[in-house]
Specification:
The complex is a heterotetramer of chains A (about 280), B (about 270), C (about 200) and D (about 290). Chain A has six helices and twelve strands. Chain A has about 280 residues and is α+β, with helices and mostly antiparallel strands. Chain A has one domain: 2-Layer Sandwich (Ribosomal Protein S5, domain 2), CATH 3.30.230.70. Chain A is elongated, with a radius of gyration of 21 Å. With about 270 residues, chain B is of the alpha+beta class. Helices cover about 25% and strands about 25% of the residues of chain B. In chain B, helix 1 packs across helix 2. In chain B, about 50% of the residues are buried. Chain D folds into two domains: about 240 residues, Ribosomal Protein S5, domain 2 (2-Layer Sandwich); about 45 residues, no CATH class. In chain D, the strands form five sheets. In chain D, strands 1, 2, 3, 4 and 5 form a five-stranded mixed sheet that branches. A four-stranded antiparallel sheet of chain D has the order 11-10-12-13, sandwiched between helices. Chain D has a three-stranded antiparallel sheet with strand order 14-15-16, with no helix packed on it. Chain D is globular. Classes of the chains: A alpha+beta (about 280), B alpha+beta (about 270), C alpha+beta (about 200), D alpha+beta (about 290). Chains A and B meet through strand 3, strand 4, helix 3, strand 6 and strand 8 of A and strand 3 and strand 5 of B.
């Protein structure tokens, strides 16, 4: 029976044989992420944009800034509206039409990452208190769904937010309606860098990082850890096989190294653009 | 519009800063006297083009095209079973979905498909249908999904080329490739492959002979599979524009062949390894 | 921990139900035991667990969908799904009053409703929420007022077999040392919840 | 203010209602009015229009109409604007498809042109006092503004069957044709919009001939339509509402209160309907006259 039939017929045994030697079919060991490619500012019609390729998984984030009235109870705060689009373009499993359950859960996850990591201070989006604030529509478009879209989305959103340049708005006194000056652009102050790393649990005890789509289907549990600089910001393990607390905590160090890797990658890419 | 509860909702209504720009767009001359356009191209020059197939691992076939600043990605799935079981038909079914990304144009677009995108989906379908051998996959369906990442003019034409490359990459049997090309008719000049600010805008263009023309052309069969035009144009100008457009398609054809050639070569030595 | 009371078996039409009150937070859950399932959701060797979360006011949005996803995955690991292949287990959660540590109350009431419905479970689960406030000390089972000005909110779900972590959902920034303290504190307090289950069962 | 133009092109029966309303202009077209098309395929045309069946065809017709009317020369939108950037007339054109016997696009465009010809918008006077603007719409029926429709286009559909192309294809002809070219032709022969429809392809030379015939037919269609509209307008209201082509028969005159009407529906014999009032007092006298 050739390797290919064995892999399609009995995927779990196939994986178990590999994982016993702490290596995966595509050659990566348990703690190794796929090659991450980052491209910032690829769409000029958006106010901020980024493209992330995590192995085959590709996510593009475009941010459009618009003006609106703030909510009465938070007159100084602007809005950040993240939405994940899992279009039928990226995988045969998705159908066209309104977003499915997974897309909604991911959009909610991105909203929680933005709110709890406080990467953008909402008050910095305020133009005139109580009258006019910025709203950043962050649309994350998944172009190729090969597992672990969450990490790619968080990275794409962060890189796009760093790329945002808002035009200056002046309120002219008599008519009170805003005037935009597209030439003078102000970058958005980013106060922290949320970086997410996702682990898959296999056979209740083996943990490996950055699962592909195939590994995600075989996994019996998924953990997503979002770290900001040296603090934990969001740990999300929805069900799946139970874990001893020690297993969970040694994931944290891997996540902290990952956040260093990512911040180095972002700075390199931003430097390569500025030059 | 009823609030869309399946997405994170922002404020009720927001407006784009572009609506309040002070600098009113001064009417730049579209074509200078000696026939040079704003971005330095002559009237019949195409923009720089980049085509790559096989960009999406999950799709049966995919293609990415960059025509100047217009960036479009397309994926093809199928032949797979038809979801809604209409009547039985020996011919296969082709469906097309054209979508602007919300950040692709200067004004933000909606997540749901609006009437222009529906119109483009139908035109894209009718441009590709004559080229596909539908009888080769009876009772099955081939889905084409096109997403415009950045729109800098002639999005429909570029998406026709991109979709036919994706079909070829997917190994769906086609009689011929379909090349999309669009022209802007400006008084007596015909501008090939217009950018977004050169494109026809019904409101601030003058009376006669201002319009745009988009053609889907099958090079080896020398057939036109799709033709649409906008704006008021005299007949002989229209005919001249059509012949120029067919010539422009002939110029695009070698680029597509070369890109398909190289992608098949990669697949061959990938499978040898 | 706040004082907990629960009534089981109030509703007649469903196979099992529980209305759990934890402090002022109150959640009602109904379980429809192994029933038939729609064709496209059917799994051949397992039961399909479906959770529908109904908030008190407003249309279900993405936040409710996230709730449903967490509770569904937690219940999927607790239920012995291979015992009822090609069938569906529907859990309907209705928010009655949300005043603090709300996710924990939902998971506990879902577990009690499953018990009441007699669905075969691998183990029981107990959910505990703790809060890290501005000064950095940890408050167990916070009410909504404390939650508002807290720095971080952590929710843990333990099983009663070997007290491993089934589900974790945390919000807000904290250090990993604080995470370890919260885990141990919640583990000890989950024993109280299991006690509550035991004598609740004895009483009715 | 609603105007109606019932059109019975023998192949497709189209009803067309046009409502002019005040509204704000679109952001980027701030000194012009707007045309809004809405096509509704009613289920009594064919069963497959039930529910959402007719939606695709409806959106195709409305897209084609938008494309054809989307050029500055066709309808003078400037006159529809009352106050730039703030107030303008928006014309909502609703097309109801009652029976489809092929060639729907031409019928729809002719109905739209007829409705626009018949359109009367009340005069609006703008009074500007201390800052805010007063709009006052005159309600006397004759103080109206009409839209100049002469240069607005009609759609001509050329269906390619085998090697030749036909105009105004009936439903059967449409079934056996693979490709159709739809042209919006204005009265002096310029093309205001064009679209190829259908799953076949055309070679460039046949497109050129189609354009020529389309132009010829378009000019003829525009001319004859305008004559018919003017002729109907000259007869004014005397002619009565040509709904389902009913007319009053005057020759049978008796002195009892009786009214005859003759209704002829295309494709079937004519029906004579009469209304006779028998006064309660002298029953028999009225009956004898009735026999005459």
């Amino acid at each position: 029976m050739t390797i290919f039939n064995f892999r399609t017929a009995r995927p779990v045994e196939y994986y178990r044989k590999y994982l016993e030697q702490d290596v995966r079919p595509d050659g990566r060991d348990l703690g190794e992420f796929r090659r991450t490619v980052l491209n910032i500012g690829c769409v000029t019609t958006a106010d901020g944009s980024a493209l992330v390729k995590l192995g085959n998984t590709t996510v593009m984030c475009g941010i459009k800034a618009e003006l609106c009235k703030p909510k009465t109870e938070t007159p100084k705060c602007g809005f950040i509206v993240p939405n994940v689009e899992l279009s039928p373009l990226c995988s045969p499993y998705f159908r066209s039409g309104p977003p499915g359950e997974q897309a909604q859960v991911m959009s909610q996850f991105m909203l929680e990452v933005v709110n709890h990591s406080k990467c953008v201070d909402l008050e910095s989006l305020c133009i005139t208190q109580g009258k006019l604030v910025w709203v950043l529509y962050c649309d994350l478009l998944c172009l190729d769904y090969d597992g672990n879209v969450t990490d790619a989305c968080v990275l794409a959103l962060l890189a796009a937010l760093k790329n945002v340049c808002l035009p200056t708005i002046s309120i002219n006194e008599e008519t009170e309606n805003p005037e935009t000056d597209l030439t003078k652009r102000v970058p958005l102050p980013i106060s922290s860098q949320p970086v997410s790393s996702t682990y898959a649990i296999f056979d209740d005890n083996i943990l490996f990082v950055d699962p592909t789509a195939e590994e995600e289907n075989l996994a019996t549990g998924i953990i997503t850890i979002v770290t900001t600089d040296d603090k934990l910001c969001l740990v999300h393990k929805p069900g799946g096989s139970p874990l001893r607390p020690e297993q969970l905590t040694n994931c944290f160090d891997r996540s902290f190294d990952r956040s260093k890797e990512i911040s180095r990658l972002i700075d390199e890419t931003i430097h390569s653009i500025d030059r | 519009m009823p609030t869309d509860t399946r997405r994170i909702g922002g404020p009720e209504e927001s407006f784009s800063p572009l609506a309040y720009t002070l600098t009113d767009s001064i009417k730049t001359l579209m074509v200078s006297s000696n026939g040079i356009r704003n971005d330095g191209r002559k009237c019949e020059d195409l923009r720089k083009m980049f085509i790559k197939t096989g960009v999406i691992s999950q799709a049966r076939g995919s293609a990415y095209i960059e025509q100047g600043e217009t960036k479009i990605i397309c994926s093809v799935y199928g032949p797979r079973e038809v979801v809604r079981k209409e009547e039985f038909s020996m011919k296969g079914q082709l469906t097309c979905e054209f979508k602007y990304a919300t950040f692709s144009c200067s004004y933000r677009r909606q997540h749901q498909q609006d009437s222009e995108e529906k119109d483009f989906s139908v035109q894209l379908l009718e441009a590709l249908e004559p080229a596909v051998c539908l009888h080769k996959f009876p009772k099955a369906q081939v889905n084409i999904f096109v997403e415009v990442l950045q729109n800098d003019g002639s999005a429909l034409a570029a998406s026709i080329t991109c979709a036919s490359m994706a079909l070829a990459d997917a190994g769906i049997e086609v009689y011929d490739l379909v090349i999309g090309c669009s022209m802007k008719i400006h008084e007596d000049k015909v501008l090939t492959d217009p950018t977004i600010n050169e494109e026809y805008d019904s409101q601030n263009s003058k009376q006669l002979n201002h319009g745009s023309l988009t053609i889907g052309f099958m090079p080896s069969l020398n057939q036109i599979s799709a033709i649409t035009s906008k704006g008021e144009i005299q007949i002989d100008f229209l005919k001249r524009a059509m012949t120029d457009c067919v010539e422009a398609c002939q110029k695009i054809y070698p680029a597509m062949q070369q890109s398909l050639h190289s992608s098949i070569k990669d697949k061959l030595n990938a499978s040898e390894r | 921990m706040r004082e907990m009371t629960c009534e089981l078996g109030q509703l007649t039409r469903c196979d099992g139900d529980a209305c759990l009150i934890q402090g002022e937070t109150c959640v009602a859950t109904a379980v429809y035991g192994p029933t038939e399932v729609r064709m496209n959701k059917e799994i051949l060797d397992k039961a399909t667990v479906e959770v529908v979360y109904k908030s008190k006011v407003g249309l279900p949005g993405c936040a409710e969908k996230m709730f449903e996803r967490i509770i569904r995955n937690t219940c999927e690991t607790t239920i012995l799904t291979t015992a009822h292949p090609r069938s569906g287990i529907n859990i309907i959660i209705q928010e009655m009053q949300n005043s603090g540590s709300y996710l924990a109350c939902c998971i506990n009431s879902a577990c009690l409703a499953l018990l009441d419905a007699g669905v075969s479970l691998k183990f029981l689960v107990a959910a505990v929420t703790c809060l890290i406030n501005k000064e950095g000390d940890i408050i167990l089972d916070p009410n909504s007022k404390q939650e508002k000005d807290g720095k971080a909110l952590l929710t843990f779900v333990f099983n009663n077999k070997d007290f491993n972590i089934v589900t974790v959902n945390t919000k807000g920034s904290y250090s990993s040392r604080q995470f370890k303290d919260c885990t141990s504190l919640c583990k000890t307090s989950s024993k109280q919840v299991f006690e509550f289950y035991k004598n609740l069962w004895k009483s009715c | 203010m609603t105007l109606g133009a019932d059109l019975t092109l023998d192949s497709a029966l189209g009803q067309n209602k046009l409502k002019a309303e005040l509204g704000t202009p679109a952001p980027d077209k701030d000194d012009k009015g707007r045309l809004e098309f809405f096509v509704d395929c009613s289920a009594n045309a064919t069963p497959e229009f039930e529910g959402r069946g007719g939606e695709e065809l409806a959106s195709e017709i409305s897209n084609m109409l938008i494309r054809v009317y989307d050029c500055p020369g066709c309808v003078d939108l400037q006159k529809l604007c009352i106050i730039p950037k703030q107030q303008c007339w928006i014309l909502y054109i609703d097309i109801l498809l009652l029976e489809c016997g092929g060639n729907l696009f031409d019928a729809a465009s002719v109905a739209v042109k007829a409705a626009l010809f018949d359109l009367k918008i009340p005069r609006v006077t703008v009074t500007q006092d201390e800052g805010h603007v007063e709009l006052e719409i005159s309600d006397d029926p004759y103080d109206v503004q009409t839209v100049d429709v002469k240069s607005s286009p009609c759609i001509v559909t050329l269906s390619k069957i085998g090697h030749c192309h036909v105009v105004d294809a009936s439903q059967k002809e449409e079934a056996c044709c693979l490709a159709r070219l739809m042209l919006g032709v204005s009265e002096h022969g310029t093309i205001t919009g064009m679209k190829k429809e259908g799953s076949g392809s055309l070679d460039p030379s046949s497109i050129d001939d189609m354009l020529d015939t389309g132009k010829r037919v378009g000019i003829a269609l525009n001319k004859s339509l305008l004559e018919a509209l003017e002729e109907e307008q000259r007869q004014g209201k005397k002619k009565g509402h040509t709904g389902f082509l009913r007319s009053e028969i005057k020759e049978i005159q008796t002195d009892c209160e009786i009214v005859w009407a003759e209704i002829n529906i295309s494709g079937s014999r004519t029906i004579k309907v009469s209304l006779f009032y028998r006064p309660p007092s002298n029953a028999c006298l009225a009956l004898e006259e009735f026999q005459q």
